[in-house]
Amino acid sequence: MKGVLTILFCLFVSSSGLTQDEKFWVFFTDKEGMEFNPYDYFDNKAIERRESLGLSLYDITDYPVNPNYITGVENCVSSVSHHTRWFNAVSVKASFAEIEKVKALSYVKGVMLFSKSSMRITDDYFEEQSDKSDSLIKYQTERMGRSEFQKANIDGRGIRIAVLDAGFTDSDINPCFNHLREGNKIIATYDFVKNNLDVCTGHYHGTAVLSCIAGIYEAEGRSDTLGLATGAEFLLARTEKAQIEVFSEEENWLAAVEWSDRNGADIINSSLGYTGNRYFYRDMNGLNTLVSRAGNLAAKKGILVVNSAGNDGSGDWNFVGAPADADSVLAVGGLLPSSGIHTAFSSVGPTYDFRQKPNVTAYGHVIAAKKNNVSETQGTSFSSPLTAGFAACAWQANRSWTNMELFHELEKGSDLYPYCDYAHGYGVPQASYFLDKTEAVPPSITLEKSKSEIKVTIMSPSLTIREDQTEVEMLLNSSVNCVSDYEDYLFYQFQTADGIIMSYNVIDLQGAESYSFNYPSKAEKVVVYYEGYTIEMRLK
């Protein structure tokens, strides 16, 4: 069978006289002569997923890499470490002189040089538990509607979640996972660092992440869920040596995504990110990096890919990284529990091509499993699994949805929607939306325009916007009585004529009935969110 991948890219490197080995991807032209039996290769759940979506079981991307091509490359280079079916490629260590020999092979389509910089796990640190820990345990999932899911007996059953991380140390003994062990919910494991089945070594980071998907904390006669998908099944993949790794992590991540697909994953959670340590901002367009391409390809195969936005919001690089930049990857930002709004370390959007990122948000300060107990920690590493667990529950409640239908419903079912910005996305997904299947009815809106002002009035509650020269003034009815998780916070943004967000802000009104702000001279539209309602107005 012939087939040529269409999502390859080539970076041809020239010899510079250097002799030391470098790391390269080598891409092949075809999969000529390769055979493939999906019923031998895929888990039954992977086959069911493809059949439910009407996808072919004989997609060329799933065919094996031609072993003769691999051998041919091996004869030219120092070593071959990994291969990827999806991209029809192998990773090699070679000198530039050896790579010139590889490029001369008739079946080699292109060569790409690895970056020498690192991939970074997106957590910050663990802390000792504080007096606020009890309330945080309850609210990190209640913020998303835990009680509604529990009343409906929704816990992610029937959904298989792959967790790609740096290790799951002590997850085999931590009491937060007793229910998973007793219920045989860990379906498969693989350590892509050491190439064995034991993932309970390495780093604790994956343990904490797993707990924010499905952990249950029991103490002093009470039981609290750390994550919402306590009834889901799991695939655990170790892809990183520690918090920083130089060469192998991208290879491992790609291998783990293919492994997750093969083993029937419905959802992949990845609390990792490539940022300015490896790439330029111009690369954050969802198309340049292999991990972003792999995220999009996994989505085409029916998997919901959930990825942390990153923790670079207050650094020199403050944008989301890869694969969170991919169009079909659900990027999750972090919120500060004390205020419910963006936490400063959470990376922001947009992508380089001005797409909305993050897509949604969740708490970035949580209680998570560590060693034999739990501890406070922070990072979008934990916003992402909270959302992945929520997504499993939402999918259980609406199993007929495709992964991308679920993706968009997660945005629509978040508490800021249709408002969004580059820090909060569309807000926090809410269980009530997925159980009630109802959308909020917008308030009645009246527009009045005179020579000097535009007046927008929203009835019950009332919100008035007046335009006058360079100021927009919101007059808020003091008798507003509506339920909102952003009570007394006013969100606003300015857009270009093309709908691109120019700037945005969140203001704590602290009981004030009005607030005024200047707007950019080039702004075409202002969009305002307050107490559950979104309104917009043309400025020109």
Q: How would you portray this structure in words?
A:
- With 540 residues, the chain is of the alpha+beta class.
- It contains 13 helices and 28 strands.
- The strands form 7 sheets. It has a 7-stranded parallel beta sheet, sandwiched between helices. Strands 20-21-22-23-26 form a 5-stranded antiparallel beta sheet, with no helix packed on it.
- Strand 24 (489-495) and strand 25 form a beta hairpin.
Keywords:
Immunoglobulin-like, Rossmann fold, disordered N terminus, 3 domains, 540 residues
The overall average pLDDT, rounded, is 84
**Structural class, from secondary structure content?**
alpha+beta
Count of DSSP-assigned helices: 13
Tally of strands? 28
Q: Give the full name of the CATH homologous superfamily of the largest domain.
A: Peptidase S8/S53 domain
Return the CATH class of the largest domain. Alpha Beta
The CATH topology of the largest domain is given as Rossmann fold
Biggest β-sheet: strands ordered side by side in the sheet: 8-11-7-13-15-16-17
* Share in helix: 10-25%
Strand content: 25-35%
